[in-house]
Amino acid sequence: MIELTKRQFVRLAGLSIADRIFPRWLRAEPAPRSQNKVIIVTFGGGVRNSETFAPEGVRNIPHLLALKPEGYFYRSCVNSGVLSHFNSTASIVTGNWQRVDDFGFQQPASPTLFELYRKQRSASALDAWAIATNKSFATMGSSSDTGFGDRFGGNVVLPKQLLLEAVEGAIRKGSEGGVANRDLVLEHLENVLNEGYEGVGWTIFKAGRELDRKVRATLLRGLVDYIHGPEAPTSGDELTFFITREVMREFAPRLLLVNFWDMDVAHWGSYSLYLQAITKTDRLCGMLWDEVQENPRYRGKTTVLILPELGRDGDVNTANGFLNHRSGDTSCRNVWLLALGAGVPKGETERTVQHVDIATTAAELLGAKCDGAGRALKELSL
Ligand SMILES: [Zn+2]
Question: Tell me, what's the pLDDT at 201?
């Protein structure tokens, strides 16, 4: 097996998806109107106020609770669109309510933030990334708008999906690491799979559709190394975090979408696993913020926007509302937004804002423009 450091792996991942103009990222960035970097973090999978920032929920999110006084908190951020995963996050990254196939078979219908930023700012392909636990997000990086599309898209990495493929490969080549190695891989695989509600069946969606075969194979081997390393992640979201951190350290992109999703385990009906996933995502958000503070390429010039992509059903008529997110009630639609970092004042508001406001705001912070349905959040505007 070829030995790869994590950094080498991430570099290969980026190179494989990018437009192969590697030296460009080594050059000094052209002076943009703004030096701001933007990281959008979604509590994907859906989480209710009642398990997060409601008085009875804050015990599940100690890190975010501690960060809240440092940032600007929007108590009411509303998802007025389709209450499904792909469409919810696609609405966040396009600034328009999306109604496309929710299993990732269609791209968002209007330009994504990745495309708007890259096209308007002539930004490198290595400057915009989406890293997602949700396996159906492979098409999140670019839209079907003919004026934009893949040539301006963001790199999309689905670390969990790649890990699973790596494991499949490791098992197929059982002789390579010996039986002991294979057992270890399976043990890790079991841990990762237990975090996702859909169980097996991951092979429907293929990540990294633009990877060529050779680089892809290398990348998969790198992921196998990950699960044997000292920081071996035990969940899809942890793997997403580690890949995100490596991308930040290697490429320092100005635009990053991070999708955590393990809390959607709630569909299985286990309230305790749902709460555990929330607590883990809270911890990962804290670690991501620590990286922003410690990384000189991010410190002091990065705005972090954290929000649930949607809520979950309320407990009005049943105690099991947390299972799904299809009722369209307040518990499903009304979530929150926490802004941290560069240019963010301290404070909070009851003023209702919307998911589609995120792209408009982020575009402005990046020196670009998004003519979507949203309005730039005035508290964060330049
Ligand atoms: Zn779900």
Answer: 27
